[in-house]
Amino acid sequence: MASSLTCAGIVWAFLSFLCATASCVGFFMPYWLLGSQLEKSVSFGTFRRCSYPVRDESRQTTVMVEQCGRYASFQAIPSAEWRICTVVTGLGCGLLLLVALTALMGCCVSELISRTVGRVAGGIQFLGGKCSCREGMGT
């Protein structure tokens, strides 16, 4: 199996894959914000939540659903800012994963990644990283 990457490129490919995986896991986990409501522990992320209040119309009260799950629809995400964060962070994770998988394929396929392709991939990776961490930094 011939590779089109140098030793530095191979290290970059594996580190890219690890970072992309960590970003995707962080994006999918509902533990961005932790707190309590109605004396229960609650947490939520951009599109998943755990232990959330639901209005019980039959008893005219609010009850806590003690399970994790996605929002029923994109519009059910609490605010426009959270919806934007979901799209931007998801896009960033997708770009990071695309570059990482391409780089890993470059470890196995000769002449898949040239110097120009590597520079473009690095730019795409920078953009993906910027999208993934932009919301967390408050900018």
From TrEMBL:
Transmembrane segments: 87-109
Ion transport listed as a keyword: no
Keywords of the record: Membrane, Transmembrane, Transmembrane helix
Coiled coil: none
A Gene Ontology cellular-component term: membrane
Major location category of this protein: membrane
Protein name in the entry: LHPL6 protein
Organism from which the protein derives: Scopus umbretta (Hammerkop)
